[in-house]
Amino acid sequence: MHPWAWWGWALGVAGAASLGTNPLLSVLLALAVVAVVVLRRTADPWARSVGAYFALAGIVLVVRVFFAAVAGAGQGPTVLFTLPQIELPAWAAGIRIGGPVTAEPLAYTIYDSLRLGLMLLCLGAANALANPKRALRSVPPALYEASVAVVIALSVAPQLVESTQRIRRAQRLRGGAGRGWRAVSAIVLPVLADAIDRSLSLAAAMEARGFGRTRDGRRPGPRATAALLGAMLLVTFGGFLLLAGTDAAARLVAAGCIVTGGAGVVAGLRLLGRRLAVTRYRPDRWGPRDTALLAAGVLSLATAAVLGSTLDPATHAVMHPSTDPLVWPTLHPGMALIVAGAAAPLLLTDAPPAGAPS
Q1: pLDDT per position as a tens digit, 321-343
Q2: What's this model's pTM, rounded to 2 decimal places?
Q3: Measured distance CA(355)–CA(107) in Å, rounded
């Protein structure tokens, strides 16, 4: 599959998760994303980084719930338990540490933490399923320099995880694996040294391949760059109006800004890309299955946006369950489309052979 198709699917599911706080929907989406990652990831080094995102999502959930219970879960009628309360000086009025822990604010924190953790899982899924090197070959020439920085930034976590696993495995083979802070220090320094060596090798490889050179030897002019930036800002402004507008006139202006800015972005990218001579060896082709995979993510996002923006109070209550008063969350029939879009890669893609890289 095309790497940007994976990213489009993952961002669509992450966007759908951000539009609601229903814990049942968050759990179902998390199960679908985990199933896709487990059954469709390859044996590449970056595919092993998904465990770090799982750990990060768990840390976010535990830390937020802990601080909510200690310092922010005291407003509500349903008292779960009481913690020892610390008396603070007068200048810290309004801050509470300890005391009664109620179910209403604690439930809200759990719902919101599940949403944030699911968004992290979606990013981890994209990192585990999409090849960053192939993604770098598939960007427009005008965005080549920016895309290099983005791809390098996104591949930092997988590379650190790979280096840590390789160094720990080498230390165990030498019989030097210890525990505690001594083992941590024995791993951190080699990992940092390996990261520096990889950075120097990447810089030498980019220099040897003539990275950043143009056809006519000149850089793109400031006017063309400013025009492209203005078109991007126009698209951003149109998206803001579309999200904030409540009447038909505001939505019409937002649609005009998005269409005009989008046309300007496409024209600017084509104009700036003519100066860059970017070669591609075996370029990735965008096929029908890639389109279907991207459409699955768009389906999840569009369905969540429709359910979240509806004026029906019952539907809005399903997407955002009430925590004060505390009610049991329920599911809406339209949420089946959101989960189906998240699980669609199981039907649209093939399982990689065991131990085969992408």
Answers
A1: 888 788 888 888 888 999 999 99
A2: 0.69
A3: 42
